[in-house]
Every structure is written in structure tokens, then in C-alpha cells.
Task: structure prediction
Amino acid sequence: MSALEPGSGDALRAPNDHLNLPFFDDVHRALAQDLVAWAPAQAVDERDDRAACREWVRRLGDAGWLRYCVPATHGGTLPALDSRALVLLRETLAFHSPLADFAFAMQGLGSGAITLAGTPAQQAAYLPAVARGEKIAAFALSETDAGSDVAAMKTIANYDRSTMGSGQKSLNFTLEGTKTWISNGGIADFYCVFAKTEPAAGSRGITAFIVDAATPGLDTSLHIHVMAPHPLATLTFDACAVPATAQLGALNGGFKLAMQTLDIFRASVAGAALGFARRALAEAVAHARQRKMFGQTLADFQLTQAKIGEMAALIDAAALLTYRAAWMRDEALQRGGGNAAEVRQRSVCAAMAKMTATENAQRVIDMALQLHGGLGVKVGTKVESLYRDIRSLRIYEGATEVQQLIIGKAVLQG
Ligand code: COS
Result:
């Protein structure tokens, strides 16, 4: 079902009062204001999620928004991946279209490991094309038995160990295994794939690779259908050979690279959840103001006012944690990254933002649906689709329980 019916655009505007908060710079305010004008004017037929995502990538690329997914050295707008820009973009796109947000986010997540650890040749080959919307990116980490427990992955990258340590580079790696829940699976042009190169070494035995979609031995045809449709697939690697030049980052350094990539994008998931929640509140307010009952409007009831008040406070609580997490990362990058304790603190703040924003958004959307009464469960109403759209955000890129674990461990360590 389309959030934006073809030709209709979107009548509601995302709020931007929060841009005055001290977390943001002029560059963020300018981009958010431009986006708040651009996004509602887009009308994409979203009935076919794969076609819609390709269309969103094209539009986001043409309009220059994907340039926030890569650094300036490779076609980006800002010097580095800027967390606040990512958060604001996702928040506004999600307000208007969950698929637009998805298409944007996956370009960033799918290429993030290349930005962080790619060789100059890899960065030149992929990042400018991602920024223009000419190559669709995907991040392939999860497996059936390795979702939260990343180190349990079974996909293996075999290589000729006899050549290692001799000063000679191994000629190639052969990937065997299955990845699942891969966003953009089936429509991506390349996948950042994480596989075991030292199976006995747990999290210290994983390496990342860039695998082009057309590589023989890679099958991406198994589409997974979910309650809020978006491109999602299972990938199988069957004697899938990639050259040594496909290795991304250090041999056996893949776990940390995956975590560093997720650290950036977890705060942006919080941004998307905020966008959904703000939209649900806007829908609830509009509905409450016009719905007549018992001789007054729904908005005149104190019970409604209490609910709307609670929704607004839940949104602001989530927003402050989200903007803090994004600001902390950007500010530290400007200082050169900070020490290990700061890095851990940033992970914790990103975890708090992701957990709180997604959980609060679920509550806000549920309250908005309740205020709509029967209309709320009618297929095709905005709150009905938001109710489905929000659910996976509490699971992907680290389930709420994983975020609790990250936060709890850090608190106990003191
Ligand atoms: N940045 C850099 N390094 C990190 C890191 C981070 N954010 N988090 C962990 N590491 C490092 C640790 O410092 C440790 O390094 P050493 O081997 O040098 O000691 C190593 O990685 C292993 O860390 P840890 O022991 O904490 O790993 P666990 O296997 O216990 O896993 C969780 C920790 C559960 C937090 C992790 O696996 C996780 O985030 N899982 C969720 C994954 C996810 O988001 N899946 C969805 C896929 S994308 S839709």
C-alpha cells in the first residue's frame, strides 16, 4: 500500500522546531529545511516495494540527498559521515514515506563499511556511485542462527592459507554459506558481506568482503515477504569466488568493522523511529480536531488531551537521546575520535537512542491508532501502515534486548 499515492504528494509537513536545539549547526538546519520542502512533493507509487525502492534511490540520488551517505572525498556533501545529517534525513523521510527512508538508509548502511575501511580503490569504485544513486548497496551480516549473536555466523570465506604470511597475497576467497534478512537483497548492485576466515576465533575470525551482485555463485533470488513490505532476501553463496581485492578492512577485523558501522547507523534508526512517531502524532492531532462525538470534538476530551500529551513527551524524550548520540559522534570525530572509553560511551548512547526511540515510537503509534478507533485498523490508513512499519525497527540493527545488554554491561563496568 502506498503512503504517497501516485500524483498526490503529501499534505502534512514534518515539524522542524527541534532544529533550534543546540545539537545542530547551520548546515543541519539548512539541509533539514530543504528536505522538509522536497519530501512531501514526491509521489512514488509504492505498491511494488522493489520498483519503489529503485525509484526512491534514483530520486534521492538526483536530488543530492544520497551525498550525505558518503564523505566529501568520494562525492559526499560533508567531510565525513555526519550522524546528525543522517538522523535528520531519516526522520523527515520516514515522516513522509518509510520506503524513502529505507532506500536512503540502506545506501548508507550498505556502503558504511567501505567508507570506514575501504582501500582508496574500493572507495573510488563504489562510493561516488552510491552517492549518485547509480549503485544500490546492501549490508550482509545476519544469518539464521546469527542475528544478535554475530560471532556465531557460519558463512565461511576459504582461502589458501599456504600463501599467507609468505609475503604473497592469497589469490582469492571462496564464500560458502547463507545470509538472511538482507535488506536490498535482490536489488542491490553489491553486498558488504561478513564471513568467517578463522572459524575457531569467534568474533576475532570474521572478515568483510565486497561482493558484486553478478558474482557467480551468489544467489539473491529468495525474496522474504514481511508485514511492512520492503526489499528483503536470503542470499546463498555457493563456491562464490572473490578476488583478494574484495577484502574489506583487515583480515579477521570484520566483527569490529560491523560494530563500528552499526554504531553510526543505530542512531539513524532512532531518527527513523522519530519520524514515524512524529507522523503518528500529527495524524492523531488532525483526527482528534475534526472527529465529532458526544456533541464535541475528540480533542475536547481530557482523555484525548492526556494521550496527546504523553505522545508528545515520549517523542521529545526519544529526540533528545537521538540528537545527543548523533552529536556526540560528530563532535568526537572533529576531535579525532576520542579514547577507548569515549568510543564505548558513544556506543552506549547510540544504544540508548535506538532502544528508546523505537520503543517509544511503537507506543506513540499504538496510541494514535487507538485514537482513530475503527479507522485505525482499516487497511490503507496512515496509522495502520505506521503500526506495521515501526515493528521491525525494534528488531533490526540490534534488537531492543541487544541495546539493553550493551547499556547494562557498560553501566556495570562503571
Ligand atoms: N566498536 C568497536 N569494537 C567493538 C564494538 C564497537 N561498537 N563492540 C564490540 N567491539 C569489540 C570488542 O571490544 C571486542 O574486542 P576484542 O576482541 O578485541 O576484545 C569484540 O568486538 C567482541 O566484543 P563483545 O565480546 O562485546 O562481542 P559479543 O559477541 O559479546 O557481542 C553484541 C556483543 C551482542 C553487542 C553484538 O554482537 C551485537 O551488537 N549484536 C547485534 C548485531 C546486530 O545489530 N545485528 C543486526 C544485523 S544488521 S540488520
